[in-house]
Records
---
Amino acid sequence: MGKTYPALDERLREFIREQPMYFVATAPTDGGHVNVSPKGYADTFRVIDDRTIAYLDLDGSGVETIAHLRQNGRITVMFCAFSGPPKILRLYGRGRTVTPTCEGWTDLLGLFGPHPGVRSIIVVDVHLITDSCGFSVPLMTYESDRDLLDRWSERKETQEKRAYRAKNNRESIDGIPALSAAETDPVNQRS
C-alpha cells in the first residue's frame, strides 16, 4: 500500500535526485487531451523547499503543459525507479509558468544546469505527496542523457526559433492559449 508524506524530506529528495527522468501530466478543464510528457536532463529539476518544486521548460514539440496550467493549474509530476528498489513517487499540485518577463525569473533560472532553448520555468506548489510500489516497472540501465534537444536548439538562429515558437507554442493541440509572442522571444535565453 502506498504512503502519503507531509513534505519532501531528505529521503524523498534523494530518490528524486537519483532518477534520470520524470513525467509531467496535465489536462484541460473540460474535454480535450490529457498530456503526459517525459522529461530528461536531471539538472532541469529542483526541489525548492518541502512543498515547492520547479523544472526548466525547454523548447519542445508543443506547449500542452503551459496551456493547461494557465487554464486550471493542475499538474502531477511522477518519478519511478528503473533501478534499485521499486518505487513510484507522485507530486500533485498547482503549477504556474514563469517566463523571462516575470519577476523572479533570473533567480529561478540560476537553479538549473546550462541548457539552450529555455522557454519557461514551471513552478509547482505541491499539495499531495504519495508513493506506490512500482513492482511492475521494468529494471533498466541508464546510459546517458540524449543531447539532441540541446544540439537542436544550439543550431537554430534567433529568427528560426521565433518562427518555430510562433508556430508551435502559442496554443495547445486543443486550441487553449499558451505563450504570447512576447513570452517566447528567444533572445539568447539559456540557463
---
Amino acid sequence: MRIVVYGLLALLAIIQYPLWLGKGGWLRVYELDRSVSKQLEKNEALAARNAKLSGEVKDLKDGTKAIEERARAEHGMSKEGEIFVQVVPNKKASPEADKDKK
C-alpha cells in the first residue's frame, strides 16, 4: 500500500513540474506578463513623447510662434522696438546669503 501511495505522489509531482516550472508554466507566464506590462508603460511614454514632438514639428513647419519662442529663449532675440531687460538678483537680498552669514 505504501508503494502505491508513494508512486501516486511521484506521478503527481511529475505531472505538476511542467505546470509550474516548464516552458509554458505559471512562473514563466507571470514573468512574461510583468515584462509585457513594463513594455506597455514604456510604449505609452514614448507615444506621448512622439505626439509632443510631432506637434512641435507641425508648429515649426506651419506657424511662426514656435520659431519666435525658440529664438527668444535660446538666442535672446527680441522684436523690433523691444528692449531686452535682464534682472539680476542682489546677493544681499537672497535667502541663501542670509544663511551664509549665520
---
Amino acid sequence: MTDKALTSSPAALGGVQYLRPDVVRVRLPMVNIFFLGAPGSDWVLVDAGLPGTAGMIRRAAQQVYGNRPPRAVVLTHGHFDHVGALHALLREWDVPVYAHRSELPHLTGQVAYPFPDPTVGGAMSLTSPLFLPGPFDFSSRVRPLLEGNEVPECPGWRWVHTPGHTEGHVSLWRGADQLLIAGDAVVTTPQETVPGALASAPTVLRRPPAYYTPNWDVARDSVRTLAALRPRLVATGHGHPLEGEALAATFDQLAQNFDHDPNGRPGRGWYLSHPVPQDMPRPGRPDPMRGYVLGAVGAAGLLWLLTRRR
C-alpha cells in the first residue's frame, strides 16, 4: 500500500473534511485550518487562515459545533496566512491564543518575521515580497505553550517544536493514532507555484514553503524530528492530507535525503547562504534581505521612470 491523498478531500473552499471523528480539516484559500474535538463537544481551532476568511471559518465551525465557541486557538506559527482572520475571530470569541514562546515577539508587535525570499523560484515566490511579514499584535490574548508539551484543551495531543520555517514553529502530534498536524514544517504541494498554492498540483510530501523559510539546516532537522514519529496520517498547512502504510517510509526518505532531494532543500535562494538564527527573535535585528528587495524594487521603479521620460 502506498501513501495517498485522502479521497474525501473537500472540493469546495470552506468545506469540512473529517480526518478522524474528532479531527476536522477546513480548506481555505491557499491554506488549511483544523478543528480538534468531536462534533457538538468542546473544541480547539488550529491556525486562522488568510485575512478575509473569518466568515468561512465561523460557518464551518457552526456546521460542526453549532454555536459553541472554541476553548482556545493554537497556532503552529504566526505567518500572515495562519493568523490573518484571527483579529476578526477574537472579536466574537473571547478565548486564549497559544503559540511557542519563540513565536511571541512576532505576535506581540515587537519583531517582524524575516523578509520573504523571491529568489527561490516559482511565480508565488516572485510575489512573496507582497506577503506581510508583520509584526502582528495579539498581546491581550496570546500566551506561551507550556513546556510540558501538552496542547491546551486537547487531551492526548502534544506539541513538537519544529523550527526552521519560523523560530517558534510547532507541529501537533497524537500518538494514539499516529496523526500529525505538521503546520508548514512539511507541506504536500509545491507552494512556490500558483497551481501548488491553489492545491491543484500533485500531492507529495515536501519541504516547507521555500520563500518563507529562513534557515534550511534547522528546517531539515525538524523534518527528521517528525519522520522519527512514524506518522500514519499527516495533515499540513498547505496541500491535501496524506495517509497510508508507506507514509513513514516516504517521510524517512525526505528526511535522510533532504539536502539533495528535489522536494527538499531548494537549489537556490538567499537564505541558503545567509540563514537566520533560530533563537528568540530580538527587536532591532537587521534584515538585509528586506533592504535588498526593497532597494531592487526602488531601482526598478526609478529605471522605469527614467525610461518613460525619454
